[in-house]
Design a protein that fits this description.
Length: 67
């Protein structure tokens, strides 16, 4: 895994933390034995959306560093 140093503003940092927290909560819910299959599918979709948002935020800051 590559470590990146990116200077993020406070708003972006907070959003990335929120994304990580949501991802962890969803993963925990997904791992419970009593989680229904349709809910698991919804959780996977939401985690995918969170990953895309995270990647977009990071990519936008990496592009700013290149400029």
């Amino acid at each position: 895994m590559t470590m990146l140093h990116i200077d993020l503003d406070n708003v972006t940092t907070q959003r990335l933390l929120q994304i990580a927290q949501s991802h962890c909560k969803l993963a925990l819910e997904h791992s419970k034995a009593n989680t229904l299959p349709n809910r698991r599918e919804a959780i996977r979709a939401e985690i995918g959306r969170l990953r895309m948002e995270r990647e977009a935020l990071i990519a936008s800051f990496m592009q700013e560093d290149v400029k």
